[in-house]
Amino acid sequence: MMLMLCVMFVETRVCRLASVWRAASVIAAVVSFGVACRAPAVAREDVADPASLRTEVLAQIPPLAGRADYAVDDPEVIDPCIAFAQQQTVATHADLVRSAVACVKTALTKSDGLTRIGKKIEARYASPTIARTGDTVTIDVGVLPGPLTELRGQTLVGDGPFHDRGQWSTAEVVKALRAAMAAHPDANQVVARALLLQRWGKPTWTYTFDLHSDRLRVNAESRPDEVYLSETLQGELANVTSLHTSALKANRL
């Protein structure tokens, strides 16, 4: 009898020890799983090559006015931000890219970043695009150059040498129209288009010289229900006096 009791006691202790061992194993496994799942910093070897990473970052930064001409892709701006992001503790490659993107966006709001954007605006203005569709030829100068500022996440361009009281200066409009006419002298309609990135309204301004009506009309995207007409020009742009809307006749559409 005593022997049987001893055997039962030993078996009970062994079972309890086995249960404790199993519980400890489960806890250890859970702890190990938690450590494995904890987000490590992205290892340097897990990061794409610099050129590829630069392309990823740039793809997530909308350029000024949504135009690729104004994308700042200078390594002097992008690469320091990538290096900064690589030094941070991030969980994934996507997090690293987001960190670099945020850094670049901030850099572009500072003086150096705005200066770089301004140079691209000037270069684009100096080399406008000219395209023809049927009897209409269009010259697009892009954003009018001027002093850049940042306001609530929006890049604005103030009045510069090509502006006239918040609008495209008459002399510059005529210059652009003449360039388009020289490229396509047989066109019956000549259009000059510019973007004015100021605080109010939508940015596109369109100036159309219709040789049949012999008038020049001005359309502002921010005033879709109005068109402004010049006097008859006798077929000569030299007869244009002012294209500022304050000097033109407004017509409701």
Offer a quick outline of the entry.
This protein is of the alpha+beta class and 253 residues long. It has helices spanning 2-37, 50-59, 75-86, 93-107, 111-126, 170-183; strands at residues 129-133, 136-143, 148-151, 154-157, 163-164, 167-168, 189-195, 204-210, 215-220, 226-229, 249-252. It folds into two domains: 44-108, no CATH class; 127-252, no CATH class.
Q: What is the number of beta strands?
A: 11
User: Could you tell me the strand content as a percent range?
Assistant: 15-25%
Structural class: alpha+beta
- What count of structural domains? 2
Could you give the distance between the termini?
Answer: 112 Å
Summed over residues and divided by their number, the pLDDT gives a mean of 84
| Poorly predicted segments | 1-46
- Sketch the topology as an H/E string, one letter per element: HHHHHEEEEEEHEEEEE
Q: State Rg.
A: 33 Å
Overall morphology: elongated
* Largest β sheet strand count, sense and barrel closure: 7 strands, mixed
Strand order of the largest sheet: 1-2-7-8-9-10-11
The total count of helices amounts to: 6
Share of residues in helices: 40-55%
Topology summary:
Blueprint: H1 2-37, H2 50-59, H3 75-86, H4 93-107, H5 111-126, E1 129-133, E2 136-143, E3 148-151, E4 154-157, E5 163-164, E6 167-168, H6 170-183, E7 189-195, E8 204-210, E9 215-220, E10 226-229, E11 249-252
Parallel strand pairs: 2-7
Antiparallel strand pairs: 1-2, 3-4, 5-6, 7-8, 8-9, 9-10, 10-11
List keywords for this structure.
2 domains, 7-stranded mixed beta sheet, 21% strand, single chain, 253 residues, alpha+beta, two-stranded antiparallel ribbon, 41% helix, 6 helices, elongated, disordered N terminus
